[in-house]
């Protein structure tokens, strides 16, 4: 016993050290792989055009992984220095609060959660471990803290005025980056639509009714019932519109998309998706849905991962953008990477010039390439963010 007890203490300390300080990074390295690491090749023509564009992305999830995004990462797919290298002006940072075990695109219930162990391993506050709403508020606070420490190099956008000021600054200060906060799944409301107010006050400007499982606000395309908006979901939409928050229908069931388009009075987005026209599965949008979203003035963010585009390169992304533009119109298409969303990507955010190159190769004009790469998103936000 004289030797066993100290040995057990040492083993326990080593195990806890591994769990708290090593394992979360290992998990991210495994889940957020970059299939083709940088540097990335592109034509001289594409490089020249890419440098002139205002590039924006509707969806990425790096806040989940505990990295300081002001530092250049050695894992994952996106951070502020890499956004700068990719000439990205604005990145929407989404908050993930709950993810079911065995997550898939067909059928999930909300009885299990992968995020709790990750939150414990990353030493989140106890309040954020126990409450989905607090998880959202904690991640928002982290992003706002990064902005405060960036000496103006990174700013969080809350209003149209913020965005206009940032764009004026960027004309003379190349390399500065803006972020906008979004929520992936209204389970963070914890069943109460009135919690929209607290989330808005924390800086969130976009939210979806459901993520990978049905929520109390609406059905998920990957849930059990796959129903439409609930009465609480309709109240959520009403409160969001009063505040000027943007409704995101990514991951929503067909019934929820139909209900949301019927009750909303403002344009909506689908922040990250693919299209059935190039990649037919339950994750992606039909042509009828593309047309309905465009008729509402909406914006469709095309993702980069294989389930979204049925490919592992920028050409597959360009094919999806081309199909969406052909059905919905070029003014309704945007980028929605899903970087750091627990999926392998063909490139990290420094490689977006490859999409510019692929769009040019597909016959897009410079003007239409600029719209898809970020111009549409900037215009949409200038029209729909709160004053």
Automatic annotation (TrEMBL):
SUPFAM superfamilies with a match to the protein in the record = Metallo-dependent hydrolases (SSF51556)
- Name the domain of life this protein comes from: Bacteria
Annotated membrane-spanning segments are none
What Pfam family is a match for this entry?
A: Peptidase_M19
Q: Name one GO biological process term.
A: proteolysis
Recorded GO molecular functions are: metallodipeptidase activity
What is the protein name stated in its UniProt record? Peptidase M19
**Originating organism:** Mesorhizobium hungaricum
Organism lineage reads as: Bacteria, Pseudomonadati, Pseudomonadota, Alphaproteobacteria, Hyphomicrobiales
